[in-house]
Amino acid sequence: MVIGRRRLAGRLLRLQFCTAPGEFLAVAGDYLAADPVVSTVVTTVAHRLLAQQADGIAQPDRNWWLVVRDASGTIVGAGMRAAPFAPYPPFLLPMPDEAAVALAYALHERGEEVTAVNGALPAVELCAAELTRLGGGRVQVNQHTRLHELGEWACPAPVSGSLELAAEDDVDLVMKWFGAFMGDADEQAGRRRASAHQVPDRAEMLRRLRTGQLWFWVDETGERVHLTGANPPSFGVARIGPVYTPPDQRGRGWASNAVAEVSRRLQADGARVCLFTDQANSTSNKIYTALGYRPVVDMANLIIVR
Question: Is residue 78 within 8 Å of residue 66, measured between CB atoms?
Answer without folding.
Answer: yes
